Amino acid sequence: MLAVISVASVLTGATLSYATKWFPSRVATIESCAGTTLLLGFGLLGVALQSSLA
Questions:
Q1: Are the CB atoms for 23 and 30 separated by under 8 Å?
Q2: What is the pTM of this model?
Q3: How many domains does the chain have?
Q4: What percent helix, strand, coil does the chain show, rounded to 5?
């Protein structure tokens, strides 16, 4: 379940970072949200991998 949430979070972050093309006036805000979402997704992926190996 963590892996699915992780993949969804990473895809959401990647989509947000791509969306900066369409909203140039809000680049800083969108990139901050995208970075936070990507870090959360990769953190969840690390937890999922760690729990699957144990």
A1: yes
A2: 0.78
A3: 1
A4: 95, 0, 5
Q: What is the pLDDT of residue 48?
A: 85
Q: Kindly report, residue by residue over 27-50, the tens digit of the pLDDT.
A: 999 999 999 999 998 998 888 888
Classify residue 18 as exposed, middle or buried by CB count within 10 Å of its CB (0-12, 13-18, 19+): exposed
* CA–CA separation, 51 and 43 (whole Å): 12
Tokens of 3: 């892996």
Structural domain for 16, as ranges? 2-53
Please give the structure tokens belonging to residue 7. Answer: 């993949």
- What's the one-letter identity of residue 18? Y
